[in-house]
Model the fold of this input.
Amino acid sequence: MGWWSKVKRAVKAVVRAVVRAVVVVVTSPTKVWDLVFGWLGWPPKKLRLHIAVLRSPSGPLLNNLNDLKPSIDLLKQVLKDRCNVNVLPYSSGNKNEIDNWVQVLTDVAPTAALKVRCDEGAVWDEGGEAGEYFAQNTAGWVGSFIPISLAFPITIFIVEEVAGKIGCAVPVFTDYATVAASVATSKDSSTLAHEVAHRCNLWHLDRKNNLLYHNNGRTPPYWLTWWQRNVLRASRHVTYFF
Done:
């Protein structure tokens, strides 16, 4: 790839981050109540979720989309019980309910998107081929940086591998996270809920029964502290009306 293409991708990544930062600033006055009293869990709020399964040269990374249902159900239960947030699918109207939640992408994903990095590596990759691919397939946006949904849905990309981890929410202004296919389909996996919480601005907490415990050794009941509930409910992804 030529240097000019790399520059354009990097510029697009910066524009995406700036647009999302502006959204955060503009909507911040509406978040004051939840930042202070979110622990009350009132009134109920909504979070829209979309799951995109990547396709490798060998085919989709998941063949049975219903294998994701336990992870989706756990996410719904935890956010409803802890924060009074109803997790809803971004799509609607499909004959099979799971198709409202999950989409198998039609094109073969680039290697950089199939096998992703996390932490500092993910920040750099956000300005590269992987970041551009994810941005083009993130729900609620057109042209990767024009919002078309006031729900600001979260997209979870099911990838082949997350280097050194099992899931990753890029630590910059994005609307997506990645989860390894092998973990996302585990019947007792809380990884999907963990990454969604990261995308809602929560960080790791060293309590094993907390949803934000740093590895998959976390245990039920997946508590959230009062301030975690405040922060999550104040996220731009959690809304009253959409």
